[in-house]
Amino acid sequence: MPPAAEPARSRGQASIELLAAVPALFLAAAIAVQLLLVGYSLSIADGAAEAGAVASAAGRSAGGAAREALPEWARGRSRISAEGGRVRVEVRPPAPFAALSEALTVSSEAWSRPPRGSG
Amino acid sequence: MTATLIASGTDRRSSLGMAAAVAVEGARLTGAETLVIELGEGAQRRGPTLLAAAGARRVEEALRADDLRASARGHVCHLALADPGEGLDALGPAIDRAEPELVVIHLPSSLWVPTLESGLRVDGGVLLVSLPAERSLAALAVGEMKGRGLPVRISSRPPGPLAARRALAGVPPGGAASDLARSIARRLLDLGWPGGPGSSREGGRQGQALPALLGAGLILILAALALTAIGGAATGRGRVQRAADLAALSAVRSMRDDVPRLLAPASLPSGAPNPQRLSRGEYLERARLAAIDAARRNRVDPSRLRVAFPDSSANPPLRARATVVGEVDPGRLPGGRRLANRAPIRVVARAVAEASAPVSSWTGMPAMAEGGGYSGPLVYRDGEGMRPDVAAAFDRMSASARRAGLDLVVVSGFRSDAEQAQLFARHPDPRWVAPPGHSLHRCATELDLGPSSAYGWLASNAHRFAFVQRYSWEAWHYGFAGGPAPCSSAGNALGPDGQGAGAPSSTALPGFVPGPYRASILRSASRWNVSPGLLAAQLMAESGFNPRAVSPAGALGIAQFMPATARSYGLRDPFDPIASIDAQAHLMADLLRRFHSVPLALAAYNAGSGAVAACGCIPYAETRAYVARILALANGAGVLLSPPLEVRLVK
């Protein structure tokens, strides 16, 4: 018969296993959050590209409208190009490393007919 | 593996019943084979009995083999010890040989410590005492057990006689006795029996902790993927809607750009066909192609696009509806590979766009002043008109004042003679208000400035920007001395940019205005302070300058007056073009004053001021087309700084 202290040792072992699994859990949570951030960035890039294209058709500044349509945090993380009715918005989603953020960059393009004479 | 519990109490019968109850409930909890052994002091020797359970019998035989006085009765094996502690050494091996899974040894309280010290493996103990009288005994038992790291339970609730008898017979005692015994057994076995269910649960936890956490992580990732897939589907749906929106907008953009060509005369003055002119069919086809182009460039198969023109009968049509029937393939969406149904989702997106006059964005103030003291383009600051070079100087002065913490406001600028007459009528004191025809405000070079806190700054700084204070008693009135003299022909010759000579205002009328009407349009425009270009475009749209025109609705003459409206404006003969133009300018001046918007004033001229005032908008598609046509004519002719038609999504 094992000594009475055995259960306590087992409990300790369980705690250590738990401790080992916590980083894995954090990693899973981080991956989940990163996925959501990428999806959200794509959705705001879409919205901004459309806003730019709508402004272009109305004869207003496409780049300015696209920038206006982005939330504050995304303006510094985006590249907007507008030429001849085509508006392209790239958004780098927030990520722990700059390289990862760059690799996960999402983009959206929209086109509308620009006013005649503006190309 | 056998688990061994010891039980004792000062009242033998009760504590034996409790020990048996713990054994029975322990067996029920664990499913183990159990045995109760009672240790008794003294030399009492009992013979074997046939009425014993198999487990009790096996222990009896094992003990008897060691020459111990054991006798099994029912579910209990009694062991009589000759002296305290004698034979305890043999008890352990005998129990091992009988191989029960759970043994509850009931012993007199005097044997509690000797049993613990005998080397017998004990996994826990339970003591039935009467509290608080036997607190010291309970404390001793607890101290002995805890000192060995063993769990112990103290109870002061003895089972009743009936419950005790049931337990001794190997059946659950029932009621509160069962609950108590089960609770004791659970506590003791959970902590003190490595082979028991408690420790097996512990082992289970060891094995489950990791998978549970990994499962939680997996669920997190799957949930994120599901959300991404949902978001992706929404994005796909959104992109189809976007393609419809942009197709409709592109069609309307094309229409808005083509309106002047649709309204252009069919033939040139030379009689040759006008190459710029578009037929209605060509106009609509160009819009349709623009929508298709937009769909293609937004990655939508043009075969999925339908374009319609809801107001195709209006002149000009300015609405387009785009319908895109799209399919979203969930498998191609991010995160959708595993989670979403692979069948494509059919999405129908519709969008309607139109080109319309911006009702609220333009005050409709005349862009040109005619006659009076100044004839030329007007530029507005704070809603007040002024000569372009005055506005440029004011802008520089205003910027300088802003740096000094002052926000200059133009309280009054250009006043036509008619406006000055109204002002003088209200304040007929020539010291404060000049009579009509004498105020410098009619020259568009004079500004009344505010606020009063800026007077000091103006007095010291205005001269730097060529503004001079005209009258010492009017701290607010500054005139511009940096350009052509007020009310001079040089001032009238300034272009809209305030630089150099512009075209004389009398030639600012569009080329389509027939010669006989040019003078009367300019005269009436000046009299009623309405843009001549606007009046000309309106006459073109109303009747094409045909003084004999009669509409199916009964509108008469060059300005298409209804008889009742003509009467209310003192127009006796709507077919008299000169009188009609003057009444038209008068009516437009009234409507502009009422609605503060050229598009709304035009709409009220066409549809009646009641309908326009009711909605604050341009009612009816026909009226929208009418307003758009006039603005396009005026804008295309370059005589009116009219607002461009806005291209916007309607729904």
Descriptive terms for the model:
heterodimer; A: 119 residues; alpha+beta; 3-stranded antiparallel sheet; 59% helix; disordered N terminus; B: 651 residues; alpha/beta; 7-stranded mixed sheet; 4-stranded antiparallel sheet; 21 helices; 19 strands; 15% strand; elongated
Structural notes for this entry:
With 119 residues, chain A is an alpha+beta fold. Chain A contains 4 helices and 3 strands, in the order H-H-H-E-E-H-E. Chain A has a 3-stranded antiparallel beta sheet with strand order 1-2-3, with helices on one face. The radius of gyration of chain A is 24 Å and the shape is rod-shaped. Mean pLDDT of chain A is 83; it is low at 1-10. With 651 residues, chain B is of the alpha/beta class. Chain B has helices spanning 12-30, 54-65, 88-98, 112-117, 135-147, 161-168, 175-192, 197-263, 280-297, 336-339, 388-403, 417-426, 455-461, 489-492, 515-528, 532-543, 563-568, 577-595, 598-607, 609-615, 621-637; strands spanning 3-9, 34-41, 69-73, 76-81, 102-106, 124-128, 152-155, 305-308, 319-328, 345-356, 368-369, 376-377, 379-381, 384-386, 409-412, 446-450, 467-469, 477-480, 646-649. In chain B, strand 6, helix 5 and strand 7 form a beta-alpha-beta unit. The model of chain B is unreliable at 191-207, 360-364, 499-507 and 637-643 (pLDDT under 50). Chains A and B meet through helix 1 and strand 3 of A and helix 8, helix 9 and strand 19 of B.
Short description:
The complex is a heterodimer of chains A (119) and B (651). Chain A has helices spanning 6-57, 62-69, 72-75, 98-103, and strands spanning 78-83, 86-91, 106-111.
Helical content band of chain B: 40-55%
Return Rg of chain B in Å: 53 Å
Q: Helix tally of chain A?
A: 4
Strand segment count of chain A: 3
Strand content of chain B: 5-15%
Shape of chain B: elongated
Structural class of chain A: alpha+beta
Q: Biggest interface: chains and residue counts?
A: A-B, 49 and 61 residues
Task: Compute the CA-based radius of gyration of chain A.
Answer: 24 Å
Biggest pleated sheet of chain B: 7 strands, mixed
The helical percent of chain A reads 55-70%
Uncertain residue ranges of chain A:
1-10
Estimated share of beta-strand residues of chain A: 15-25%
Report the total helices of chain B: 21
User: What is the spatial order of strands in the main beta sheet of chain B?
Assistant: 3-4-2-5-1-6-7
The N- and C-terminal alpha carbons of chain B lie at a distance of 79 Å
Largest sheet of chain A: 3 strands, antiparallel
